[in-house]
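Entry:
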Amino acid sequence: MKASRPQQPAAAPAPAPVLSPALRTLLGLAAAVIALAGVSYARELVGPLALGAVIVIICHPVRFPLERRGWPRWLATTAVIVVGYLILAVMALLLFFAGAQFAQLVADYADELRASAQSVLQTLQSMGLDQEAADAGASVLKPENVLSFATSLGGQVLSALTAFFFVLAYVIFMAVDGARYTTAEASFGPSRRPTIRRVQVFNSGVRRYYVVNATFGAIVAIIDGLALWALGVPAPAVWAILAFVTNFIPNIGFVLGLIPPAVLALVVGGWPLALAVVAIYCVVNVTLQVLVQPKFVSDAVSLSLTLSFFAVIFWTFIIGPLGAILSIPLTLLVRALVFEGDPGARWLRWLSGDRDAAPLAAEQPD
């Protein structure tokens, strides 16, 4: 008789999770709300910090060709800082010029704005709208309201410029630290390679995003400026600058860049000129900014179009106007920190548009 083999003890069942999936989701959402509330409370610090980080990320590749040519590290870092300062200076000068010209236009065309507001009021009343609705529609063209809008916008710009000193300091510190971080993999070996890879992918995505936006923004600004100049709309350079800046606001930037030149065209040339401006913007800006550019942006940063649109509204609500310009980098940062280090979050990464999170072969249905 063969000796019977001792029976192997049955494998112990896996312990049940302490928290149910629904409860874990609720706790995660609660933690996210607390974290975002803290970010919103510190928006005056977080906004300039994020802007400084983006500037350094964009300029950081400048150091590599310089170091390959034998430049010392401190001199290559100085070059990164100088390029970052040049970008900030150019943007500040463009905004200052556009703001000053806009305020001057409001003062020069105050009488025409009032006349246009009265004409719009009469037109709305003739269409059967009540007095309150007609007044609300016509109030858009009142000089004091236009100037108030410009003042409010100028106040936001001034608030950003108040933090300009901190941005300059952040650029210096981050550029210096960026030079040290390039040696992280050599210092710590392969164990830190996945983390370093996530940082590299994030930095590359941010740079591609702003390169695509700057390219399309320059094209749109030149076409819009030349078209407005040909139509005789005053200060076409101002509206070209506005078109370039608002191009960095995904999806809704087109509308923000259209309203001021359309209103001014209505004042100086009536409805035919205003409709011509709207038609040109719809053909040029909608084609390039709404139909073509989002595809390039989506390919550059691997974000879905829906998430890109929602990110603008969300980050503007969290950190203010600067959040509209930084919405895509901030969204990429959240994905890199929260999802990309978690193998179980592959599904969520795929939903966000990440092409690298395609289902594994073992996960695909037979």
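The chain has a mean pLDDT of 76.
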